[in-house]
Amino acid sequence: MRDFSHGHEWLAINTATLRKQWRLDRIIDECARRDIRAIAPWRDQVAAVGLAAVARQLRDTGLVLSGYCRGGFFPAADAAGLAAALDDNRRAIDEACALASPCLVLVVGSLPGALDGKAVHRDIARARGEVRDGIAATLAYARGVGMPLAIEPLHPMQAAERACINTLEQALDLCDELDAERTGALGVAVDMYHVWWDPKLAQQIARAGRERLLAFHVCDWLTPTRDLLNDRGMMGDGVIELRKARGCMEAAGYAGYAEVEIFSDDWWSRPGEEVLDTCIARHRSVV
Amino acid sequence: MRDFSHGHEWLAINTATLRKQWRLDRIIDECARRDIRAIAPWRDQVAAVGLAAVARQLRDTGLVLSGYCRGGFFPAADAAGLAAALDDNRRAIDEACALASPCLVLVVGSLPGALDGKAVHRDIARARGEVRDGIAATLAYARGVGMPLAIEPLHPMQAAERACINTLEQALDLCDELDAERTGALGVAVDMYHVWWDPKLAQQIARAGRERLLAFHVCDWLTPTRDLLNDRGMMGDGVIELRKARGCMEAAGYAGYAEVEIFSDDWWSRPGEEVLDTCIARHRSVV
Question: What are the helix (H) ranges across A187-227?
Fold first, then answer.
């Protein structure tokens, strides 16, 4: 297992962690200043600065991507909605290519309308079928341009609104169905916040193996957790056994970044400098 | 599949649903007045009225129990804590016997101290081992007095504080280990709030079968959900496919009550009469 205690060369920052403090160009500069080598930006943050400008700034600073957030949200109320989602995913893939991302992270979506509190239907099996078909169609395009897709299982408390893929086992079953040859074109993003509770976690990480383990996200689960979306903890402040999990990942062959992704009203309210410095310190002491 | 639309003979009320409005004796009277045949009371509610008095009132009104809440919380920081938990579970079983409950529901517990925001350790595998050992020891006593134990898998968002058994599959694996002969002494309580998201739900209900399906709890999952504990919805107000789930239960042989258990600051703030009348109406129209 790699020793993270002496440096942070394997730290990546998911830029949602700082979305309330800074625009993406400032985040990139602040990361570069701290010798943070990788980021995972969100599409809206890239759009706010401009895709070409972000690509140029990455080249200038030497930063790379640990992933691009995000594609997905495949289910829809009707055929037009399904087609629009596929179009949007192709655009996300093109952007990921322009930024030389190692993968496009997929938050697959679930019941149409649920995110606005008005679910059009309650048939989660239908949503899961649309997700399967959406990934299959998107994978065909992604293979053509060489962009791996990383399915991110989301915590079951997000099953209605954001993702109807809720366990690593479920995500890997889909990978086996759509990429039986384990070509590397389809895999998973293992975000510990979403999967830490799973009694089959270690078993499924081992099953995934190097070809399927495309990303590793860290933060922490607080007790109590006061909000289903924006109360994630800084690594070390909660109950997730992060180092043990990283051990499982590395035993299975993962050798990439540990990407910090913290949606938190608390951390968003602090100075960005403090957040980044704390990420570096906790990466070394806890992850 | 049974037709619930013409009556509510298979409706049970988990008395936590009315804990902020009424004491247990009043809840029993109000249920009896509405021809509700079954309740599932909590230990603290029984203690507030007195065990003998509750048993007498149940006999007088003809109400029966659909379950007794609850045993469990096996993990502890030290040996004394583990022993105290076993003592407490034996007392819970004795109370369940005194009230002629068909089962004792187990909320198994997880990281010691987490419920108070101060987890003593983060080793969820250790907690799961202590749960296994605690159920095994408790089962020996329960078999002797003929009280079935119903393991309730809790939603993964409760994995740190309340229960480290978080899927039906995990609960049934434990049943298979500790009661391989399917004697009926050990089974599961299927609370739809906790398991509705599970892609293996139908498969695992079928696996459980009649001998293991000891209780069926209903309410609804709201979008958005504003609190991890006390924002459950009334049946029909959320996204859970309750009738489809009941179909799975009955296809597997379940023929018992649909027990309404709603922890909700919203419903606790309404008149108890309105809550009970709504439970009856929704039992007929939605469950």
Answer: 192-195, 201-212
For residues B197 and B219, the answer to whether their CB atoms sit within 8 Å is: no
The sign one gets for the Cα dihedral B75, B78, B79, B83 is: negative
For the complex shown, is ipTM > 0.85?
yes
Contact B199 A166 (CB under 8 A): yes
Please give, rounded to a whole number of angstroms, the shortest distance from the CA of B224 to a CA of chain A. Answer: 6
In this prediction, residue A27 has a pLDDT band, given cuts at 50, 70 and 90, of: very high
Q: Which residues pair with B40 in a beta bridge?
A: B14
Interface contact B85, partner A, CB < 8 A: no
**CB distance from A5 to chain B under 8 Å?**
no
Give the pLDDT score at A277: 98
Select from A128, A131, A155, A157 the residue whose CB has the most chain B CBs within 10 Å, as the one to mutate to test that interface. A157
The pairs formed by A49-56 with CB atoms below 8 angstroms and a separation of 24 or more are: A49/A23, A49/A24, A49/A25, A51/A95, A51/A98, A51/A99, A52/A98, A53/A25, A54/A24, A54/A25, A54/A28, A54/A99, A55/A98, A55/A99, A55/A100
pLDDT for A229-250, tens place per residue? 999 999 999 999 999 999 999 9
User: Does pTM surpass 0.95?
Assistant: yes
Q: From the centroid of its chain, how far is CA B221?
A: 16
Residue A57 C-alpha, separation from nearest chain B C-alpha, in angstroms: 38
